[in-house]
């Protein structure tokens, strides 16, 4: 059945992952029982070009056929193999360390989108009350004036009352007037004049 064999031949396209060489071998096998005679080369060339998965190569080959009608099947295969080889070596070089600008920009855009999706919700720092992580706080090694514990400042202190021993030292908001020489407090300077 020549018609059935030709149908198989005419419907054969290059499948994903199939090399150009393997595709050529399969086309030649299918063409054996098609009885094309002296039109075999032309039919192989046309089927080869029409079934190529690499669209730019197929378009270039169609241009070449339009320019020179005598483009043989073997010349078309050589051209496609050369382009495939070039593409593979370029891909291997890029995979070895170079990245394309398109790949880099895709990664950058992906990163920007992922950053956008995560809202910047910073909690209030329990050490100072500002919006930053507590582990980054400047006051993590500071002594509280109220409870004398290290790790927070007075405005964020959770202690109920200052310790009895600290009450004498903790005079919030009051100015202490000292005499310069003796270091004792001058009670008269506290009065209004």
Beta-strand percent range: under 5%
What is the end-to-end distance?
A: 126 Å
The overall average pLDDT, rounded, is 77
Low-confidence stretches: 173-179
How many E strands? 0
Protein architecture, described:
This protein has helices at residues 2-11, 20-31, 40-51, 55-67, 73-95, 101-117, 164-167. With 193 residues, it is mainly α. The longest helix is centred in the middle third of the chain and has 23 residues, at 73-95. It is rod-shaped and about 105 Å long. Mean pLDDT is 77; it is low at 173-179.
Topology:
Blueprint: H1 2-11, H2 20-31, H3 40-51, H4 55-67, H5 73-95, H6 101-117, H7 164-167
Question: What is this structure, in a nutshell?
Answer:
This protein has seven helices and no strands.
List the keywords.
193 residues, mainly alpha, 47% helix
């Amino acid at each position: 059945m020549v018609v059935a064999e030709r149908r198989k031949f005419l419907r054969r396209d290059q499948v994903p992952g199939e090399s150009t060489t393997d595709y050529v071998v399969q086309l030649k096998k299918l063409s054996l029982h098609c009885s094309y005679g002296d039109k075999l080369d032309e039919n192989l060339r046309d089927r080869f070009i029409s079934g190529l998965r690499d669209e730019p190569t197929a378009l270039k080959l169609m241009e070449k056929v339009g320019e020179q009608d005598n483009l043989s099947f073997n010349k078309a295969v050589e051209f496609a193999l050369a382009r495939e080889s070039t593409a593979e070596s370029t891909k291997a070089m890029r995979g070895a360390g170079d990245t394309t600008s398109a790949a880099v920009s895709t990664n950058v855009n992906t990163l920007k989108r992922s950053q956008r999706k995560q809202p910047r919700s910073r909690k209030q720092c329990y050490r100072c009350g500002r919006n930053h992580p507590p582990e980054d706080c400047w006051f993590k090694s500071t002594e509280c004036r109220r409870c004398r514990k290290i790790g927070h400042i007075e405005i964020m202190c959770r202690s109920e009352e200052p310790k009895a021993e600290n009450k004498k030292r903790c005079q919030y908001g009051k100015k202490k007037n000292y005499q310069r020489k003796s270091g004792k407090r001058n009670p008269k300077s506290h009065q209004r004049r």
